[in-house]
Write a structure and sequence with these properties.
Radius of gyration: 30 Å
Low-confidence stretches: 42-69, 362-369
Mean pLDDT: 80
Largest sheet: none
Oligomer: single chain
Number of helices: 12
Helix content: over 70%
Number of strands: 0
Shape: extended
Distance between the termini: 23 Å
Strand content: under 5%
């Protein structure tokens, strides 16, 4: 019986497999992998622009007469407020024209304006986000195919993973709606507790943190273990979830995996931060030199200012695109490594899903490669 690989051996294997997938370096291949990695990422976000009705503001303090500190009866306060409102309304009506245009009415009462822009934004943004999420669900399986077989035609892979991709897409939509709804409810309860029942914050704030962590854990387990099951069995997500629970994996083994991945994630964030500082310094230096050169040319050749402005804008757009591609390419080994690592670790838990043919004592491998 083969000896089960250690965690260090698993990480070492994943790194060697990552190098094997990416090298020798080829521009076309790296750009293709980068496209797959980007499209396999999650896309979400929605916004609105609804405005709260405007409230009546009291007069400025400087306009108020100095009052004594003698307590004023509530009835007298109410009468004074009513008299002040009547006076302000009368002065406002006296200073306004008899008739107002529709534009003046909308400007005066913005709260009555229908949220057309917000509604239009939602009607456009939601379908776009759903399409991106659908594409992302498919490309998650194309990414798996790439790691397992080292290369895959995108068009053929897109059609091959139709069943699993569509099932995963539906789950993402339902999971996202439930997660967003629960988060909004929790935040609303926290806002209510801040105003009326602060002791409840001792329960609601930890509950919110726990819920966020739980969502992250569920997404990690689905991405790292459920998707490989769906990929190998060509099944839907509910079937894969049942299959995963049938393995009866212990809490300790899953917690160990999550801790290891968290540690690797912290390490990758440190590497990305160092790269970001280095790249940012280079971009800043190039930007300053370009700005100084452009300012000098605009001063000497003032008649060329419009042309220099257009050239500068085009150059800026080109630099931004080049920087995005450069950062994506230079950091490409990181997402590839994490995808390989999850597939390398899975056989430690379940030998039947050994997609990369790693020696394991959990059972015979069944690689698709």
């Amino acid at each position: 019986m083969n000896q089960e690989p250690t965690v260090y051996q698993t990480i070492s294997f994943a790194w060697k497999k990552t190098i094997e997938l990416l090298f020798p370096f080829e521009w076309k291949r790296w750009l293709k992998i980068l496209l797959i990695v980007w499209l396999a990422g999650h896309a979400a976000g929605m916004g609105g622009n609804f405005r709260v009705p405007r409230q009546v503001r009291p007069a400025a303090e400087t306009d108020q007469p100095v009052r004594s500190q003698t307590p004023v009866p509530p009835s007298q306060k109410l009468q004074e407020s009513l008299d002040q409102l009547k006076s302000e309304a009368a002065s406002s009506l006296a200073s306004e024209p008899a008739t107002l245009t529709s534009d003046q009415v909308l400007e005066r009462f913005p709260s009555e304006t229908p949220p057309k822009f917000s509604l239009l934004f939602i009607l456009i943004a939601v379908p776009i986000l759903l399409v991106l999420l659908w594409v992302s669900a498919r490309f998650n399986f194309i990414f798996l195919e790439l790691v397992v077989k080292r290369d895959v035609p995108i068009k053929e892979g897109f059609a091959k993973c139709k069943l699993s991709g569509n099932s995963y897409f539906k789950w993402l939509v339902v999971f996202g709606l439930v997660g967003i709804g629960a988060l909004v409810l929790n935040v609303a309860l926290i806002v209510f507790a801040i105003s009326f029942a602060k002791p409840l914050l001792l329960i609601l704030v930890p509950l919110l943190i726990f819920f966020i962590v739980a969502l992250a854990v569920v997404m990690t387990l689905v991405d790292d273990f459920i998707l490989p099951i769906m990929y190998q069995d060509s099944s839907r997500i509910l079937e894969a979830v049942k299959r995963f629970f049938s393995f009866r994996l212990g809490f300790g083994s899953l917690a160990l995996y999550l801790l290891i991945k968290f540690g690797l994630g912290v390490l990758s964030m440190i590497v990305l931060s160092l790269l970001g500082i280095l790249i940012g310094a280079v971009i800043l230096a190039v930007g300053l030199l370009t700005a100084l050169l452009g300012s000098f040319l605009a001063t000497v050749l003032s008649f060329l200012k419009p042309i220099l402005l257009i050239v500068g804008i085009l150059l800026l757009i080109s630099i931004i695109i080049a920087v995005i591609l450069f950062i994506g390419l230079i950091t490409l080994p990181i997402p590839v490594f994490f995808r390989v690592f999850s597939l390398s670790y899975f056989p430690r838990l379940v030998g039947n899903y050994n997609l990369l043919t790693i020696p394991t004592s959990k059972g015979e491998s069944s690689s698709s490669a």
